[in-house]
Amino acid sequence: MVAIPKPVPMTPQEYFDWEEKQPIKYEYMNGQVFAMTGGTIPHNDIAVNLTVALKNHLRGKGYKVLMADVKLGVSEKGPFYYPDVMVTCDERDRRAIKIIYYPCLVVEVLSPGTEAFNRGKKFKNYRNISTLKEYVLIDAREMTVECFRPNENGVWELYNYGEGDEVTLTSVDFSFPIEMLYEDVVLEEVEE
Fold first, then answer.
1. pLDDT tens per residue, range 131-175
2. pLDDT score, position 190
3. CATH number of 107's domain
4. In which domain, by residue range, is 150 found?
5. How many CB atoms lie within 10 A of CB 18?
6. Region of residue 56 (phi > 0: left; psi between -120 and 50: alpha; otherwise: beta)
7. Is position 95 within any domain?
C-alpha cells in the first residue's frame, strides 16, 4: 500500500497558476482541487442543445452564453466551478477572459457521479452569487428539468418540468418545449 500525502491547501492564485499547467480542468473549493471527469455523449448533447438555443434567443441582447470550459467564481476567493452552461448580462463580466463572477443563469446536466454534489454543496455555494436568478438541473437519464428561482423573500423555490412541458427560464425570458433539450439525445440507462 502506498501512503498518499495529505494535499496542501492552495490559495486561489496558487490554484490558477497550477491549473494552467494541467492537462485537465479542476474545480476549487476550500483550498482543495477536484478533477473534472469527462462526461457522456447524452450529457454533452443536452448542454449543446441548450447552449445553441440560448445563444439564438439572446443574440443581440447583451448576454454572454458560455459552456463547460468557462470557470465560474462564486467570489474572488472561490469556490471555482465549471458549470455546463451559464449566462451573464453583467457589465463586469463583459471583458472577462478566464472567470465569470456575475451570472444570472447557471445550468448543470446531472450525471450519477455529480448529482448529489450539484444538488447539495454546489447549489449552496451558487446561492451566494448575488446576480444569480436561476439554477437549472437537467437529467441525462430521463426527461426532467428542475429550475430553482428565488422568490421575492429570497427563498429558492423549485419548478419541475417533465415530458410534454414548456420549460420557462425567467432569468433570460425564454420558454421552449422540454423536448428541445433532448433532441437527438440517447438517454443514459437508469440503474434500478
1. 999 999 999 999 999 999 999 999 999 999 999 999 999 999 999
2. 58
3. 3.90.1570.10
4. 40-69+82-180
5. 13
6. alpha
7. yes
Q: Which of 154, 155, 114 is nearest to 137 (CA)?
A: 114
pTM over 0.70: yes
- The answer to whether residue 45 is domain-embedded is yes
pLDDT at 191: 55
Q: Is residue 13 part of a domain?
A: no
Q: How is residue 168 written as a grid cell?
A: 420557462
Domain count, the chain: 1
User: Residue 2: pLDDT band by 50, 70, 90 thresholds?
Assistant: very low
Q: Which regions of the chain does DSSP assign to beta strands (E)?
A: 26-29, 32-35, 64-67, 71-73, 80-81, 85-88, 99-100, 103-110, 134-139, 144-150, 156-162, 166-169, 174-177
Residue 11 lies in a domain: no
Kindly tell me the number of DSSP H helices and DSSP E strands found in the chain: 4, 13
**Residue 69: is its pLDDT beyond 60?**
yes
CB-based contacts of 7: which residues, under 8 Å, 6+ apart? 32, 33
- Asked if 9 and 75 count as a contact pair (C-beta separation under 8 A), the reply is no
Cell of 145: 428539468
